Amino acid sequence: xxxxxxxxxxxxxxxxxxxxxxxxxxxxxxxxxxxxxxxxxxxxxxxxxxxxxxxxxxxxxxxxxxxxxxxxxxxxxxxxxxxxxxxxxxxxxxxxxxxxxxxxxxxxxxxxxxxxxxxxxxxxxxxxxxxxxxxxxxxxxxxxxxxxxxxxxxxxxxxxxxxxxxxxxxxxxxxxxxxxxxxxxxxxxxxxxxxxxxxxxxxxxxxxxxxxxxxxxxxxxxxxxxxxxxxxxxxxxxxxxxxxxxxxxxxxxxxxxxxxxxxxxxxxxxxxxxxxxxxxxxxxxxxxxxxxxxxxxxxxxxxxxxxxxxxxxxxxxxxxxxxxxxxxxxxxxxxxxxxxxxxxxxxxxxxxxxxxxxxxxxxxxxxxxxxxxxxxxxxxxxxxxxxxxxxxxxxxxxxxxxxxxxxxxxxxxxxxxxxxxxxxxxxxxxxxxxxxxxxxxxxxxxxxxxxxxxxxxxxxxxxxxxxxxxxxxxxxxxxxxxxxxxxxxxxxxxxxxxxxxxxxxxxxxxxxxxxx
Length: 516
What we know:
This protein is of the alpha/beta class. It folds into 3 domains: 1-62, Arc Repressor Mutant, subunit A, CATH 1.10.10; 80-394, Vaccinia Virus protein VP39 (Rossmann fold), CATH 3.40.50; 413-514, CATH 2.40.50.140.
């Protein structure tokens, strides 16, 4: 078989730039004429290193170099094929009426327990029941959320069709499935998941529903114990300074680690020079702020070349700089519009997207709740809200919004105290959907004026833009997307004692423009 493998590789390398690679044809070229099915299997196993896509007709062609285009429109529903696969898994594990009787009660109590543990900051142990409950309750929203975060990369041509992906704490697979469905059919994915818990069993079943050009490996170990060299192959070495993963995912996992920044930094060492580290977290205050703290701790750190030794005593700065592989830069969605400044406010920023259609498995579990369950409110086990925080880090210095403001033209949030009661000109990113109707801890306060968190990347105190009088000249603020940068002319700066934050009033005198 090893001799056949090398012969298949050699023939595929020759034919890839000539014509589609046909296993039947290659079989004729190999000594001993192996069965075409054997050749096809070997081509599948070597496809990632050879950069080959398997087509519907059974032939193989080189993957295209064109970047992936951003998706258009919202994610409307969790796909039926994944829904069916999860329901089959639940039926196999708990019986065909898994949502009723003892098994239904068990799953409902499990979901209640891990939700309470999560909100109280307690660790969650992922046994089979927790993994099943987690899939029921969280899988659809996580599936959708990652696709919106990927839009930021695709919009700038930074998401390729030939992707090597490392998924830290992959869980039951929401981000993995979302990524696979975001990519076009002609994309090639080498996907590695790190997941030590029982969630890996659910993940394995669901990944079986992805396309033929998604090549998956699950490493059943912890993030701390994972050895990146285990993913190396003839055509790939994540420990080499000029190689690495194109995309490293850390979705809804950093808050569960004892040292999240240290673990994240270690995985940045496996990132390709032009790759992206995408971290995500739920929108609640603790995990969202925690994610932003990790982002800020990592920002500006310089990663040493993997092949270089530590700097010797007496090395000058130039010598040390030659050994550096890259500096961690925040690509988005938060901004750094003032050179040399970074924010130090509490950093609670999250996006909100349209709700998903209710999956059948959530509806079944919720509607089967016994009538005498005094703790149940209708919809308790339905979770279709798509609300999330995310951070994108890179090593090549690129930012999604690359601006350098000057105080001669624009006010700076770090100096807002001296502008209070004045009308000023300002440039800032919109870092929330409208918070009106909610207080700034997200618990509801009855505000009616549109209210948005904004940032220029220099602030140490939260800043909010509040629209008191909507006009055609300030409406661009309401129309801007999350993370989009706007200019504000004649915005009124006020201090809010109750919130200990700055309110920047957008009224009939204010002009807002969306900046490219």
